[in-house]
Amino acid sequence: APPPAPPDISPRAEPPRPQPAPEASAAQQENPSAAMNTLRQKMEAIADEFANGKINRAQFNAMYRRYSEQRAIIERLLERNPNSDAWKQVLGVKGHTGFLRSHYEAQPLYFVIYRHQTPKAILSAGKDTPKESDILPIVQMVWKMPNRPKAGLGRRLLPNNLWLLLATGEHAATAVVFSLEPSIGQARLVRDLHADFERANQAALARGWLVQDRMVFPQRALVETAP
Predict the structure, then answer these.
(1) What is the pLDDT of residue 36?
(2) CA distance 114 to 168
(3) What is the pTM of this model?
């Protein structure tokens, strides 16, 4: 079988910022038609969040399914008895959508930083032990790419449904492994952290003077909590 293609590390355009999902007013909570309209607006807002890179597919699917189920249940209740207030109980459960948003958010498990053409990592860190056997072959494919862009960003599905984000620059690459598919917003963050890493350590990277105690690693912000 042919070897897998390297990840696309083309730069990504910045999408517009999404608008927050609307909240139901007191009047809408008393009016089933208005409540249905609010649910529809929330479904549209979730679609906008995904389109603008703020949430991943798992978050979108879970939250959209939640709103869709609420809408379908309310419609069935009103069909059976248009004068019933039972539909209010469907909207009365608070916080579940927020739980879904948090539960399906991709979590960074670890990162590994490489200087180009050097298989020995400069630094790795995270709550999980890096599995470089999954990462390094992909990084090496990128190193071999003709006309590789000076700065790029790509993603790849790994074994066990983990996801790799790979940010590259002039001198180095940062590989970050996530628990789920990361959002575009998370990808932009990884790209920016790597760019700042190269900017802050430009002399050391250019000369190959890679002494951890004399370098700074913005990527630590992915896996470390501020005191």
Answers:
(1) 82
(2) 9
(3) 0.72
